[in-house]
Design goal:
- The complex is a heterodimer.
- Chain A contains five helices and five strands; from the N terminus they run ββαβαβααβα.
- By secondary structure, chain A is an alpha/beta fold.
- Chain A has one domain (2-109): 2-Layer Sandwich (Transcription Regulator spoIIAA), CATH 3.30.750.
- Chain A has a five-stranded mixed beta sheet, sandwiched between helices.
- In chain A, strand 3, helix 2 (55-70) and strand 4 form a beta-alpha-beta unit.
- The radius of gyration of chain A is 12 Å and the shape is globular.
- In chain B, strands 1, 2, 3, 4, 5, 6 and 7 form a seven-stranded antiparallel beta sheet that branches. A five-stranded antiparallel beta sheet of chain B has the order 9-8-12-11-10, sandwiched between helices. In chain B, strands 13-22-21-18-19 form a five-stranded antiparallel beta sheet.
- Among the domains of chain B are: 79-199, 2-Layer Sandwich (Beta-Lactamase); 412-584 and 636-641, PPM-type phosphatase domain (Phosphatase 2c, domain 1, 4-Layer Sandwich).
- By secondary structure, chain B is α+β, with helices and mostly antiparallel strands.
- The chains are: A alpha/beta, B alpha+beta.
- Chain A binds chain B through residues 19, 21-22, 52, 54-56, 58-59, 62-63, 65-66, 83, 89-93, 95-96, and chain B through 459-463, 505-508, 510, 527-532, 548-552, 555-556, 559, 579, 583, 589, 591, 629-630.
């Protein structure tokens, strides 16, 4: 799993690629926690390069979302593809998170 | 035990000894050369002093003898002397000069007067008194003798070669002949020779008194190279130095002899002379007589002291070397001894005896440091092994606990298939295979009342112990919540409410809960974010249930779940599974996939429910090459129609 970060004016765009499973999910959670500790509150998570997400990955996302909720922050997803899009649909995540087609759309939606 | 020759002690002692021997011989060699040169130098100095002193004394005596005839010549050259006067003059000269053996004035023929062919009065010592003789006669025409002719021809005083006086007691003698002249008609005319004879007895005493060391000596050569004085009496007046050199075949000695009679002075090394021993020779001329005095220093005697010293130094050196060797060996052993002990102790420890005590070392040197380091290594090894043993034991305990947990976890899942002897309306089989000892998947089924059968499948996020605990809680909640007349979406909602309270870790479970009306085949269900089940119509389609997913259970409080409804005809099957099935991965991380699952289910259609699941499970295990990444759970339910219209009598078995 690779995590790339781009600071935008009103949010931090985090692009995650590769696989997010029981092995790599804690890494994602840790880096988002790091950004939160640095004061970031609004995230656009770009998952266009993510090939696979397991339930552990979903749990990490949920954990981050819970922390941001306490801080009145926001978590927006963009670029969901194939399997990941399906998992989001099945698990009902698309019901609780704002999902956008692109980063630009995500940034506008804040 | 190490061979002594290979031990550090021996090698140290050897290198020390070799170095010290080298240094010793270098110093000794230098010292020896230097001392030898010093001895040579001081010998040359001594020889010079010795010979010069002697030569001066000889010259003194020779000069005092020379003066007698020279004075007499002066008297005779002043004018004619009466016979009587002349005899008195000669007699008093002999009397006054004890060095003189005899003295005579030998006139040339007819030179004293016109009558006398021979006129040669001669006074000489005979025991304690003086005797007188007239020399010359028919038998002794003295004016043809060398002692008369040579000074006459040379026109100057002359010492004769030393000779043995055969007439007067076989004494070695030498004569000094001085020519004298008269003025006749205004011309200096040779008139005769005044001759002073001298016994060389004093010279013999003087020369033979020169003793050098034990066997060193002095000798005197005449101007012709004759041995005048020599400790070997046979040589005296019988042999020349050239003869000796010839006899020995010694060219250098001949050169030396030549230099000696030329009146040179030198300090030379010679190889041999009489006894064939090497030595030093110093020679210096006795100028007035044309002689040469030489002193001989035997080499071995000169060097006797230093040779003795050498022996002593060598002896001391050898003894010192042996002592040094011994001391180095013993000191090195004192150093390496503990090392040997340590090597033994280490071997003992290496063989597993960790309680073996290292030999005690009090020394503060490197060996002591090593020993202490070994001891501390042993201690830390011991505690490390103890810790490892403890950890292993703990791990084993955890493993055995995990195994127990696994048993407990499996035991809370229903395992009797078909489930209820009194419920022939359905056939059901389920399998659960955890990726680890314990897992987060769950399934359950139970009758809610006579007509309603509830079945549920769930997948807790994550794996292992945390997931398994969450799974146990979830399973219990489902069982407790799904009571009679509770619709599925309400069950999910209540369970969601319970699970999401204080769920710090944001754990959740995806769950699909369905309630089958066994009379009608109607299924009411609610999906909490779970994989969509597959509906297998008897002899017909195999497809995923069309249903939008609800939110996962336990993630968020207050979520509403939807209810779905569908109807199973008798013989239709309903397949539930967790994502461990569709997301099983081969070695290239390629997923088993939803499509493949449908395909396989179609192929397995018609087999008993138990066989379908067992075959699928075997297929999945083979697909992931035994490296199962997620829990696998499958449940297959077949609706066999209401009791009254059963189509499959076999299902009533068990």
């Amino acid at each position: 799993m690779n995590i790339a970060v781009k600071k935008e004016s009103n949010a931090l765009v985090v692009t995650v690629s590769g696989r997010m499973d029981a092995v790599t999910a804690p890494e994602f959670e840790k880096s988002i926690s790091g950004f939160i500790a640095q004061g970031e509150k609004v995230f656009v998570i770009n998952l266009s390069g993510l090939e696979y997400i397991s339930s552990a990955g979903l749990r990490s996302i949920l954990a981050c979302a819970k922390r941001l909720k306490e801080l009145a922050g926001k978590l927006i997803f963009s670029g969901l593809q194939g399997h990941v899009k399906e998992v989001f649909a099945i698990s009902g995540f698309h019901g609780i998170f704002k999902i956008c087609d692109s980063d630009a759309e995500g940034l506008r939606a804040i | 035990m190490i061979e002594f020759r290979k031990s550090i002690a021996f090698r140290l002692a050897r290198i020390f000894s070799v170095s010290v021997i080298l240094i010793f011989f270098m110093i000794f060699g230098l010292y020896y050369r230097f001392t030898r040169r010093m001895i040579e130098k001081s010998t040359a100095e001594n020889a010079k002093n010795l010979t010069l002193g002697t030569v001066m004394r000889i010259e003194g005596i020779l000069r005092s003898v020379q003066q007698v005839p020279e004075n007499m010549a002066g008297v005779l050259e002043r004018g004619p002397v009466e016979k009587k006067q002349l005899l008195a003059l000669i007699k008093s000269a002999v009397e006054k000069n004890p060095e003189l053996y005899g003295c005579g004035v030998s006139f040339a023929p007819y030179s004293f007067d016109r009558k006398s062919l021979y006129f040669a009065p001669y006074y000489y010592r005979n025991k304690d008194s003086l005797s007188f003789a007239w020399l010359g006669g028919e038998n002794y025409r003295y004016f043809v003798s060398d002692w008369f002719q040579i000074p006459k021809e040379l026109g100057k005083p002359q010492w004769s070669e030393p000779y043995f006086d055969t007439g007067g007691g076989n004494i070695l003698m030498a004569s000094y002949s001085v020519p004298f002249y008269r003025k006749i008609n205004g011309r200096q005319t040779f008139a005769g020779v005044i001759c002073a004879d001298m016994s060389l007895q004093w010279l013999r005493e003087m020369v033979s008194s020169i003793k050098i060391l034990d066997t060193g000596y002095a000798f005197l050569l005449s101007r012709n190279g004759n041995f005048v004085m020599h400790p070997d009496a046979k040589l005296i007046m019988n042999e020349t130095i050239f003869g000796v050199a010839e006899g020995l075949g010694d060219k250098k000695l001949r050169e030396i002899g030549r230099d000696m009679i030329r009146g040179k002075r030198a300090f030379v090394r010679i190889q041999q002379l009489d006894a064939g021993r090497p030595g030093f020779l110093y020679y210096t001329p006795v100028t007035s007589a044309g002689w040469s005095l030489a002193v001989l220093f035997p080499w071995d005697e000169l060097m006797a002291d230093i040779a003795h010293l050498n022996q002593l130094v060598l002896l001391l050196g050898t003894v010192g070397m042996l002592l040094l060797f011994g001391v180095v060996v013993s000191e090195a052993r004192a150093i390496t001894g503990p090392l040997t002990g340590m090597a033994d102790a280490t071997a003992e420890i290496a063989s597993g005896n960790l309680d073996f005590t290292m030999p005690e070392t009090l020394s503060q040197d490197e060996v002591g440091m090593l020993s202490r380091a070994f001891s501390s290594m042993q201690q830390s090894l011991k505690s490390h092994i103890a810790r490892l043993t403890e950890t292993t034991a703990a791990k084993e305990r955890i493993e055995s606990e995990l195994n127990i947990a696994r048993e407990i976890q499996l035991s809370i899942l229903p395992k009797i298939f078909p489930p209820f002897a009194g419920m022939p309306e359905l056939d059901l089989f389920a399998v659960l295979k955890s990726a680890r000892e314990v897992g987060g998947d769950l399934y359950d089924f139970f009758a809610m009342d006579d007509d309603h059968f509830c079945f549920v499948i769930g997948d807790v996020s994550g794996k292992g112990v945390p997931a398994s605990l969450f799974m146990a809680v979830t399973k219990t909640l489902f069982k407790a919540t799904a009571v009679k007349d509770t619709p599925p979406e309400v069950v999910l909602g209540k369970v969601n409410g319970e699970l999401s309270k204080g769920n710090e870790k944001a754990m959740f479970v995806t769950a699909f809960l369905a309630i089958l009306n066994t009379k009608t085949g109607v299924i009411e269900f609610s999906n909490g974010g779970h994989n969509l089940p597959v509906v297998i119509r008897k002899g017909g389609s195999v497809e995923y249930l069309r249903q939008t997913g609800g939110m996962v259970v336990g993630a968020m409080e207050g979520v509403e779940f939807e209810r779905g409804t569908m109807t199973l005809a008798p013989g239709d099957r309903f397949f539930l599974y967790t994502d461990g099935v569709t997301e099983a991965m081969d070695e290239n991380k390629v997923l088993f996939s939803d499509e493949r699952l449908l395909r396989e289910l179609k192929l397995l259609e018609g087999l008993p429910v138990k066989d379908v699941l067992n075959r699928l499970l075997a297929m999945l295990v083979a697909y992931s090459k035994g490296d199962q990444s997620d829990d696998i759970t499958m449940m297959l339910l077949e609706y066999q129609g209401p009791k009254s219209a059963r189509i499959n009598p076999a299902a009533s078995r068990g």
